[in-house]
């Protein structure tokens, strides 16, 4: 009989051994929890296609943030649901816009919470595109100015970091320049550097009521077939002054996360998006998978691929698991 010389099973025999040699560990420090904020008072609406995720009014932010902190979550990413929309997304940079109100409230009541804002126009335009439309097309350069104004208004409201998600060319340089001119040189930019035109955003578009009213986003978001192009997009953003590079979605793009980790020395973030969350929730609800285990395995795989930061609607659920002794 020929025996295997090396037996990997030796190190898998019990939980202590497995713990000793575990290569990847999730930590609550790296989780970012997205929040949807709407106008009004004392309202908390569950998003139908994202069970467990709510749209909340500004006055309920403090309670939400304290709950997050109690679980060890120290960063949130804000999305706004404005009352009014128009062709150029003016609500995105309104002094008293929904995000500006939300940021001021959070930084006043829970200053220790790191507040990151999504910088985009799609929630604020009546046509649902991420920029303004000229000649039936999303106009890149006209949009840049509005985006920079938006980022500046977030910083003025007190945001700790801005995260542009629009995918216009040159927006990192434009935003960096405007922030610097206004003495916000210490506010970092987390760039949605590699954002694909993905069907996984479906539930988010319900949540934020921002589905495009005509056409789709393929003329600005990336083609899911392209991996090399991700490196080019990321290089541009690094050159323009991005501080953190994000890949979005996460699970269908683990190869892209790994490539960015390999090629760049900046922190890499991955956005585990609404559809990725919804699929796990739906299958778990049907009893087809163990939702909690699949959640953990999924987030672990994102970390193993190379992400330093994970933005996920599972942040609170995962934090609870990380808190409990195992
Ligand atoms: C705004 C934005 C979107 C998401 C984050 N920022 C929607 C989109 O690009 O269509 C999606 C997040 C998610 O699906 O969880 N542009």
From TrEMBL:
<keyword id="KW-0460">Magnesium</keyword>
<keyword id="KW-0862">Zinc</keyword>
<feature type="binding site">
    <location>
        <position position="313"/>
    </location>
    <ligand>
        <name>5-aminolevulinate 2</name>
    </ligand>
</feature>
<dbReference type="Pfam" id="PF00490">
    <property type="entry name" value="ALAD"/>
</dbReference>
<protein>
    <recommendedName>
        <fullName>Delta-aminolevulinic acid dehydratase</fullName>
        <ecNumber>4.2.1.24</ecNumber>
    </recommendedName>
</protein>
<keyword id="KW-0350">Heme biosynthesis</keyword>
<keyword id="KW-0627">Porphyrin biosynthesis</keyword>
<dbReference type="InterPro" id="IPR001731">
    <property type="entry name" value="ALAD"/>
</dbReference>
<dbReference type="InterPro" id="IPR013785">
    <property type="entry name" value="Aldolase_TIM"/>
</dbReference>
<feature type="binding site">
    <location>
        <position position="233"/>
    </location>
    <ligand>
        <name>Mg(2+)</name>
    </ligand>
</feature>
<feature type="active site" description="Schiff-base intermediate with substrate">
    <location>
        <position position="248"/>
    </location>
</feature>
<feature type="binding site">
    <location>
        <position position="120"/>
    </location>
    <ligand>
        <name>Zn(2+)</name>
    </ligand>
</feature>
<dbReference type="GO" id="GO:0006782">
    <property type="term" value="P:protoporphyrinogen IX biosynthetic process"/>
</dbReference>
<comment type="subunit">
    <text>Homooctamer.</text>
</comment>
<feature type="binding site">
    <location>
        <position position="205"/>
    </location>
    <ligand>
        <name>5-aminolevulinate 1</name>
    </ligand>
</feature>
<feature type="active site" description="Schiff-base intermediate with substrate">
    <location>
        <position position="195"/>
    </location>
</feature>
<dbReference type="GO" id="GO:0008270">
    <property type="term" value="F:zinc ion binding"/>
</dbReference>
<dbReference type="InterPro" id="IPR030656">
    <property type="entry name" value="ALAD_AS"/>
</dbReference>
<comment type="similarity">
    <text>Belongs to the ALAD family.</text>
</comment>
<keyword id="KW-0456">Lyase</keyword>
<feature type="binding site">
    <location>
        <position position="217"/>
    </location>
    <ligand>
        <name>5-aminolevulinate 1</name>
    </ligand>
</feature>
<dbReference type="GO" id="GO:0005829">
    <property type="term" value="C:cytosol"/>
</dbReference>
<comment type="pathway">
    <text>Porphyrin-containing compound metabolism; protoporphyrin-IX biosynthesis; coproporphyrinogen-III from 5-aminolevulinate: step 1/4.</text>
</comment>
<feature type="binding site">
    <location>
        <position position="130"/>
    </location>
    <ligand>
        <name>Zn(2+)</name>
    </ligand>
</feature>
<keyword id="KW-0479">Metal-binding</keyword>
<feature type="binding site">
    <location>
        <position position="274"/>
    </location>
    <ligand>
        <name>5-aminolevulinate 2</name>
    </ligand>
</feature>
<feature type="binding site">
    <location>
        <position position="122"/>
    </location>
    <ligand>
        <name>Zn(2+)</name>
    </ligand>
</feature>
<dbReference type="GO" id="GO:0004655">
    <property type="term" value="F:porphobilinogen synthase activity"/>
</dbReference>
């Amino acid at each position: 009989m020929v025996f295997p010389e090396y037996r990997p099973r030796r190190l898998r025999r019990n939980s202590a051994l497995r713990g000793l040699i575990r290569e990847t560990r999730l930590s609550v420090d790296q989780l970012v929890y997205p929040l949807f904020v709407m106008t009004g008072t004392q309202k908390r609406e569950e998003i139908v296609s994202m069970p467990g995720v709510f749209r909340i009014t500004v006055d309920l932010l403090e309670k939400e943030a304290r709950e997050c902190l109690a679980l060890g979550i120290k960063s949130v990413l804000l999305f706004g649901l404005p009352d009014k929309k128009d062709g150029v997304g003016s609500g995105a940079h309104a002094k008293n816009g929904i995000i500006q109100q939300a940021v001021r409230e959070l930084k006043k009541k829970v200053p220790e919470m790191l507040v990151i804002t999504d910088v985009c126009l799609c929630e604020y335009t009546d046509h649902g595109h991420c920029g303004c439309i000229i000649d039936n097309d999303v106009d890149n350069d006209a949009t840049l100015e509005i985006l920079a104004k938006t980022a500046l208004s977030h910083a003025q409201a007190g945001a700790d970091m801005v995260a542009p998600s629009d995918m216009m060319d040159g927006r990192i340089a434009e935003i960096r320049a405007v922030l610097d001119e206004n003495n916000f040189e210490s506010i970092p930019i987390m760039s949605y550097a590699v954002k694909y035109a993905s069907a996984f955003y479906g539930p988010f578009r319900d949540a934020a009521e921002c589905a495009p009213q005509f056409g789709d986003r393929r003329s600005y978001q990336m083609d899911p077939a392209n991996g090399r192009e991700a490196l080019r997009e990321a290089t541009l953003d690094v050159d323009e002054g991005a501080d953190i590079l994000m890949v979005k979605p996460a699970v269908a793009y683990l190869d892209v996360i790994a490539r960015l980790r390999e090629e760049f020395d900046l922190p890499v973030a991955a956005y585990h998006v609404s559809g990725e969350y919804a699929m796990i929730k739906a299958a778990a609800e049907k009893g087809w998978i163990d939702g909690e285990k699949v959640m953990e395995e999924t987030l672990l795989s994102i970390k193993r691929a190379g992400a330093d930061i994970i933005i996920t609607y599972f942040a609170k659920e995962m934090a609870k698991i990380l808190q409990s002794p195992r």
